[in-house]
Amino acid sequence: MAERIYGIDLGTSNSAISYVDSLGVPVIQENLDGDLSTPSVVWFESKANTVVGKLAREEKLFSPNDVIELVKRSIGTDKKWNFSGKPYTPEEISSLILRSLIPDEAADDEISAVITVPAYFGAKEREATRNAGQIANFNVLELVAEPVAAALYYDSKQPLKDKTLLVYDLGGGTFDATIVQGIDNTFRVIATDGDARLGGADWDKALGEFILDKFIEQTGDEEAENDETFVAKLHEQTVNCKEALSNAESATVRLASDSGSRAKIAVTREDLERVTAPLLEQTEIPLTRVLETAKEKEPGLTIDEVILVGGSSRMTAVTKLVERLTGKKPLLVEPDLAVAKGAALAAMISKLGGVVNAESSPAVQQQSIAQIAAETGIDAGQLAALSEKKVANVLPKSIGIRVVDHLNNPYIDYLVNQNDMIPLSEPVVREYSTVADGQEEVDLTLYQQASDVPSEDVALNDIISGSESMLTGIPPLPKGQPIQVKFFVAADGMITVEGTHVPSGRSIESHVRIGVMNEEEISAARTTMMKVSVSQGDN
Question: pTM score, two decimals?
Fold first, then answer.
């Protein structure tokens, strides 16, 4: 069997996996149910057995305490779930979802894959996603921003050459607005913004509350909301109703409680838009902000095309909002699958980039491409075209260090700013000085912007776990001693910080791969989780 390099959309509500076929076309790998996507829901059937997908979602009706969903919203946090007396991290739960996507015939193979992440994920969330892949025993080639993956797929259908694309991505649990340019086969992110805690699940909740109120109004059964089975059915019917209202002006929801109360509730598209209007307005803020940021970075920039991705972007109100703000009629481009298909293209670009050296002679490049063609079974001409494409990304959050002003008030001095291109073209160099006589150490701990917009306020920034470092051994001299800080971010997000006491040459260098787990913890988690079986149910 030819080697496959996978692209994975690890979604909040649903996940999908794709690969590039022999003709260079991205193809979704169906799951065991024959579906193109798998619900990102995990059921702990026992300590050693888990079920992921549709059956797990259905099991929530019967075993709500044994089922986990929306885990992506907790990635990069220290949240844990307990099953059979063992705590599980978001990375460990996510690793089960990733393993469930791999076809049985490849289950024992080394899996190389690109995994997508929301463009607005911070460094901690991104690295936690990489950790999840490593726990699943994947070779994670790269993490690619979801809108970049969508743009790659769109480009495969409609070339983006010398065009600027706005990607409005409203998924199940996250929202991103990203502006991507396609110039000289390089896909460059100009600006990105969004909300990692806003998505279709919030629309489901708001609409569900509206339907519940209508049910109680019709039946008088106020106890229904305490019935777990009823609540699960309500959620299922709410999602179906929301999807129906993307194509129809009205839909009917039929509900019954265990007490015998029954109701048929008519819901209109106008009802949906009214009760979820505050949520839609929350997407307008970062969308407006990203358009302004892009124009500040690229004066005269115009948006050529707008695409909608993410299942929740199908809602009519989304189309109206985006058209009003951009003056462009947005296009729906396989909203549920565009990211996964683009991830497959990104995976092949990553594979080619690691083998095909742009500085080599054409003959050597052709030889390298022929080798990959033989390994993967993909047409060499298609691989050659993909090898010319490059993806350039930006920092989603500003990063800096804590310093003090002349009044000794602390603030964050940003070394790199939100939407700066990575890798950096050269290290950032800053000159500081000691603030006290006899000062023998300097704190070089990194902070990352925690608010929607950068702020010097220390309280509005988070310490980057793993970045804690201290320049020590400074000779005890009068205050004002010069301290030089060099800072660099590589293409894979690896951060290098070097602090030097200039007069003595005393220095320290740290390399930061931001995450909530270290290598030993990842290895231990991999050993533990690989003993847990994963299936999609009775197939």
Answer: 0.86
